[in-house]
Amino acid sequence: MTFQELGLAEPLLQAIAATGYTIPTPVQSQAIPAVIAGDDLLVSSHTGSGKTAAFTLPSLHRLADRRPAPGSGPRVLVLTPTRELAQQVEKAVKTYGRSLRWLNTACLVGGAPFFAQVKQLARAVDVVVATPGRLIDHLERRKLKLSDIEILVLDEADRMLDMGFAEDIDRIVAATPAKRQTLLFSATLDGVVGKLAQRLTREPRRIEIAPTVENRGNIEQRLLFADSVTHKTRLLESLLGGDDLQQAVVFTATKKSAEEVSLSLQEKGFSAAALHGDMHQTARNRTLDKLRQGRIGVLVATDVAARGIDVAGISHVINFDPPRQVEDYVHRIGRTGRAGRDGVAITFSGPREVGIIRAIERFTGKRLDVHVIAGLEPAPRSAAPRTARPPHRGSGGYGRDARPGAGKGWSAGRGEGQRRRAP
Ligand code: AMP
After folding, report:
1. What domain count does the chain have?
2. Who's near 134: CB < 8 A, 6+ residues apart?
3. Which of 32, 110, 121, 274 is 20 to 30 A from 358, comparing alpha carbons?
4. Whose CA is nearest to atom 19 of ligand 1?
5. How many A from CA of 49 to the centre of ligand 1?
6. Three-state DSSP state, 171
7. 228 lies in the same domain as 126
């Protein structure tokens, strides 16, 4: 299947060719013709599946055939749970819409100056990408009308519900025309998401792209047992000194621990920075820019802040704390292995975290490979549930020899990055 066969307009095919994509991903080849046909969609797909293009391309296709009448409101609205994801989606809209020279977009997210957004809305805007809270602010102050919306996209709907946006979503939807087309993307389509979908969509086509490990086959997934937070910190420092590490995202359970881990890494000489929801949006953007430019080696982030990060240089994802929800595991590891590259995802399991690790393995259908780092082996008690075998000694195995100061990783010359794989 080619993009031409999906029926997309010529300007979009040009933009796709310029991007370098040749073959549509499974979610794209199923979703694009269905959206062009005018169907509502319920799509379960994971991050990294190409879902952004799956809704952006056919939405732009709809916009491409006619310019709106003067004074019309936006025709496409995309709601996302986080600011970072909204910015990422707006970027994709601009990339794929580059041949539509008249196309105007607005990204309405909290933390950014409100009146700069009002100014953006003063011109004719075709596509709005927004987080629910800030969009409501604009609606309440009558800075925006949604009565011309033709396509409404809910991206990562499950996450929006998790974050307590259900009421906001209902208010926003009520401001859009009933005859709109609704596209709902979510990691899961069950439970509360299913109920939301019932309220918002009409005879939707259901597309399920399973978030299985096969889809993330380019990401090697490892498990390291840890006895304590101190042990985790030592494991982390060791991994970050590794030769093959370009850039890493380290996930923590709380904002506080993101700050603490980042600070402790900085003190050890690592080029680390924190990213979490308590930071001002300007600081979050600055940090992400630095990450993209390669000026930050290690980003220590919470789940919400890290959604939508798409940086090809991220070679490693390290789960300092496992995620609370199994779906987040798939989102987290999807931060590496971008743009067709290989990636490594390493999860630390503390003594009380074995249960969630098992749940992750059930969810992904794959057991994580237990690794140990020579000199940093867990006490037998922690490793007992999975009986990690002791590391190799000597020159064999997966690791490399200890070399003080070795590694072009992000260490300040601390050379403890040697790994040993449990045979
Ligand atoms: P997403 O699932 O939207 O977060 O996209 C995942 C990544 O896949 C992004 O880096 C896109 O640029 C890339 N991508 C999207 N569609 C394609 C395609 N058809 N071929 C190759 N890469 C793609």
Report:
1. 2
2. 108, 109, 110, 112, 114, 117
3. 274
4. 24
5. 6
6. helix
7. no
